[in-house]
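Forwarding the complex inputs:
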Amino acid sequence: MTRARLKTYLPILDWLPGYDRQALTNDGIAGLIVAIMLVPQGMAYALLAGLPPEVGLYASIVPLVFYGLLGSSRALAVGPVAIVSLMVATTLGQIAESGSAGYLGGAILLAFLSGAILLGMGMARLGFLVNFLSHPVISGFSSAAALVIGFSQLKHLLGFDIPRSHLITETIGHAVTHISQLNPATFAIAAVSLVILLLFKGRLAPWLKGVGLNPAIADGLAKSGPLVAVLLTTLSVWFLGLNQSAGVSIVADIPAGLPPLTLPGFDLALIQQLLPAALLISLVGFLESVSVAKSLASKRRQKIDANQELIALGAANIGASLTGGYPVTGGFSRSLVNFAAGAVTPLASIITAVLIALTVLLFTPLLYFLPKATLAAIIVVAVANLIDLKTFREAWVYNKADAASLAATFLAVLTLGVEFGIVAGAGLSIALYLWRTSRPHMAEVGRVGSTEHFRNVLRHEVQTHPDVLAMRVDESLYFANTAYLEDELLARVADHPEIKQLVLIMNAVNFIDASALDTLETLVVRLRDAGVALHLSEVKGPVMDRLERVSFSAKLGKGNIYLSTHDAIQDLTSQHASGPPLTRSGERVAV
Amino acid sequence: MTRARLKTYLPILDWLPGYDRQALTNDGIAGLIVAIMLVPQGMAYALLAGLPPEVGLYASIVPLVFYGLLGSSRALAVGPVAIVSLMVATTLGQIAESGSAGYLGGAILLAFLSGAILLGMGMARLGFLVNFLSHPVISGFSSAAALVIGFSQLKHLLGFDIPRSHLITETIGHAVTHISQLNPATFAIAAVSLVILLLFKGRLAPWLKGVGLNPAIADGLAKSGPLVAVLLTTLSVWFLGLNQSAGVSIVADIPAGLPPLTLPGFDLALIQQLLPAALLISLVGFLESVSVAKSLASKRRQKIDANQELIALGAANIGASLTGGYPVTGGFSRSLVNFAAGAVTPLASIITAVLIALTVLLFTPLLYFLPKATLAAIIVVAVANLIDLKTFREAWVYNKADAASLAATFLAVLTLGVEFGIVAGAGLSIALYLWRTSRPHMAEVGRVGSTEHFRNVLRHEVQTHPDVLAMRVDESLYFANTAYLEDELLARVADHPEIKQLVLIMNAVNFIDASALDTLETLVVRLRDAGVALHLSEVKGPVMDRLERVSFSAKLGKGNIYLSTHDAIQDLTSQHASGPPLTRSGERVAV
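Prediction (whole assembly, two chains):
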C-alpha cells in the first residue's frame, strides 16, 4: 500500500507529523468549548432518546476518539444528535419500555447495527446513496422532526406526564386537557432557561459588541447560554430544594466512573426487527454528518472523502455500542462551534472526549440537581433552528414539484411517523424526477434568418419548410420517455400528411439506452410505413460511438445522420426541391 | 361534449357511419380465422391458468364485444393470453386448490379487480406508468415466463402428474426421476402435435409458395397448424378410444350453452390478498396489448390512445368477470393474424365473439375427445416465440447495464417467481438509470484552433488557459447528481490552485431542480472561499427563466452568465491578462 493510500485510510498520518504547539493551543480551546457544550446536550439528547442521561455522556467519549483517528474531516464534532435520538426513541418504543434493560440493550444493539451498516457501506463505497435524498425532502423531514422533537419535550417543560405520540395534535390535546396538572416550579425553570438561551443566542453578541467588547470574545460568550442556564437552574434547585418541595424533576444520581464495557446482544429476531431502523438511522446520521463536514472543509479548501467518513462514523458507532452508548453522528451546531473555536485537527475531538471522561469520573455529583426542564429547553432551542420555512418558500417560487415533495415529506413525518415519512419523501422525489424525465420538452425548430442557428418556432421568428419537420428533444432517451417521444412524433406526422422528412436534433441527448434504441429502430419502420424518412442531427460523440456498435446508421434506411441541423435542412430541401420556406413567428406563446 | 371528444370515448362512432360491404367481407374473414385459432388457444390457456377449458371460451365472447365497442385499435384481438394465464395460476395457486369453487371464484374476482384497476388507471390517465418497464426487463421477463409456462406443460405432454413449481429445475427433476410413469399414447399425441405445429409454422408456407400456390393462401394455410393438430388428434383419440384404453387425458364434457352470468364475490380479505397480483396482471396485460396495438396502428398511420385502451381493456375484463371468464388482454400473435387476415374495424372481433358463442352453444360435443396433450403442444409452440436471446445479445453489445437488467429479471423470474421477478426487474432498471444520471459525464473543454467551438480536451487538440477552467456537464442537474458535480468541481480546483475562473457550460442541462440550485449557490460560496469565481455559459431558455425567478445571477457575485463559452473565455482571459494559451491535444484517451 502506498503512503498516499494509507493516508486515505488513516487520515491521522496526514496531520500528526506536522503538529505543533500553536495547533495544540487551538485544538485545546476548541475541545474545551465543545466539551462544555456537549455535557448538557449529550444528557438532553439521551433523555430525548428515552435513555438515562449518562448514556449521552458515554456516547461522547470513545466514539469521538474513534472518529478522530479515522475521520477525513478536521472539524467534525461527533456525538449524540437530536434527529438520530428521536429515531432511536421511535424505534425502541416499539420493542421495550423506556427505562427497562431491554430498552438500553436495544440502544446498544442499534448503535452496533448502525456502525456495521456504515462500515459496510464505506467498504462497498456506497456513500453516493445519500445523494438520493433531495434537499427539499431533507428540509421537510428536518422541519417535521424538529416539531416532533420539540413537542416531545412538552412534558419536561410543563412538569407532568404526556404519553409519547408521533401525532403532535395528540400531544397538544393531552397537554391542554390536563393543564391543571402543570408543575409551576418546573414551568418557571423551563421559562427562565428558554429566556436565557434565546437572549444569549440572539441578542447578547450584538449588544456586547455594541458596548465595545472584542467581537471574538463576544461571540464566545454568546455561546455560553446553555452553561449559564444549567448553572443558574441547578443552583436554584439545590438551594431552594425544589426537587423535594416543588416536585421538580432532576437528573439525580449519575453513576460515577468511566463508561462500562458492553457487548450488543445478538438476538437474531431482534436484529431483524431493528435492521430497517438502523439503516435509516445510518443514512440520516451520515447525511447530517457529511453535509456539515463538507461545508466546513471547503472553507479551508480541504476535501472530504464520503466513503472514509462512512468508515469513521461506522467505527464511532461500534465504539458507542462497546461502551454503553447509543447511535452517534457528526452534529451540525456542535461542529460549527468546534470550527469557529479554532479546531484545526481531530485532536480537538479527542481533547473533548478526555474532558467528558473526566466529567463522568469526577463531576457527576455536580449534575445531581440539574433540572430536566433545563435540558428540555436546550433541546427546544436547538431544534428550533431546524424548522425551515425559507426552503419551502424558495422551492415554491422556483419549482412547484420540489415544493410538493417538501410538503409531502413534512406531512408524512407528522402524520405517519419519522421513518415512514423520510422513505415516502425519498420515494416521491424520485418518482417526480422520473415523471419529469418521462415527458421531455420537445420543440419544433426553424432557421433564424439566414444564420445557421435553429430555434423553437414558438419562441422565435424562424423559417420552416412544409415537408421537413425538425424536432429537438431536450432529454436523454431512456425507457421511460421513449414511448412519449414515439407518440409525439407519430402524432405530428399523422396530423401533417405533407411531412416527408423528420429531423431529430440530438444535441441535448446525452445517452440512449437499449429501450430507446429499440424505439428509434421501430420509429424508422413506422415512419417509413407512413412515407416519412427519419434523420438525426448533432449526435454527441459518446452517443454516436454506441450507435455505431449496432450499425444504427444502416438501420436508418433512407435516413441520414447529419453533423449539424443546418446541413440536414440544406440537404433535405435541395434534394426534394421544396417550395419557398415559410416564415413563422412564435405563433403560440406556450413552451 | 364535442363530437370529436365523443369519438375518443366511443371509437365506434368513428368507423360505423362509413361501414360498407367490402369492410364487412374483410372483417368477416378475419373474424372467422381468429375464431378458429382462438377456440383451442382459449381452452389451452384456461388449462394453463388451472381453470376448466370452457372458462377460456367464455373469456373469448363478451370481453371481445366490450373491447370492440370501446377500443381505439382497429385490429387488436382480445382474449386469454399465455403470460396472464400463468400469472393467474401463480396467484390463485396460493389461495385455493385448482378445480375448486374457490379457485374459479378467485379467477372471476381477479378479472373484476384487473378490470377495475385498468378502468381506474384509464380515467386517471395513468397509461404512462407502463413506460417504466424497460424493454430489456420485458424481454427478460417474457423469456423466463415462457420457460416457466413451457415446463408447466410437461405434465400434459408426458401424461403424468408433476407438482406445480415455479422452479424449472424442480419440474425437470421430478419428470426425470418419475419418467417410468410416462404415458406412451399421450406422449405420442404430444409429439405428433408438436411436429405438425412446427412444420406448419416454419416450413409449410415456403414450400407451398415453392410449388406455385398464391402466397396469401399459402400464408393462410400455414396458420391452420393448430386446427389440423386438433382435428387429427381428436379424431385419433375418438376412433382408437385412447382415452379409455391408453389413459389419454381429454378435455371431455364441456357444458353446452352460453356463458353463465357471474358476480365476483366481494370478500374484503380476499380482495386485499389478490390486489397486488391484479395490479401486476393489469400492467403486464396492458403492456402486451398496447405494444401490439401501437405496432399495428402505425402500419396504417392510425393512432392508439393509451388511456382509451385502458378503459376498453378494463371494460373487457369486467365483462369477463360477469360472464364466468378470467383476466384477458390483447394477444400478440392473435392480433397479428387478425390484422394479416384483413380486419379493418373492431367488428372483426365482434364476429369472432359471435362464432365462439355459437361454438359453446352447439359444438362443444365435438371437443369432447380433444386431448389435453394437443393443447399443451399449442401452448409450448406459442410461448417458444417469446424466448428472446437476440435482445440480450444486442443489449450486451450496445449497453452492458441494459443487458444486466435483462439477465437479472430473467433470473429473478426463474428463481423467485413471476410477480417478484418483474417487480425486481423494474426496480433494478430504474435504479440503474438513477445511478447513471447520478454520475454525469463531465468534460474539460478547450477552444478548437481559432474557431468559436469548444471541445473535450481529452478527445481534441484544443487551447486552454491555466487560470480558467471550462467544464461541460452532460446531464440535467438534480438531487442525485448535484453532490457529484460539486465534488468533481471542488476536487479539480483543490488540485489546481492556479485556477481563478471556473466556467460551467450548461448547453446539455435541460433542468435544474431545487437541490441542484442549492448546490450551485453553495458552490459559488465554496469556490469564492477558495479564491475562484464561478461563471455559467450557454444556459438554455427554460432553465434561465427559472433561475431568474430566484435572481440567481445576483447570487453569482463576481461570476457572470455568458451567452456563449467563447464570450466567456474571451472576457475572462482579457480581463485578467492571462498568459498565452496552452495547446493540449487529447492527453488521455479515456473519456
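The beta strands of chain A are 78-79, 329-330, 442-447, 454-456, 461-464, 468-473, 501-505, 533-537, 561-562, 582-585.
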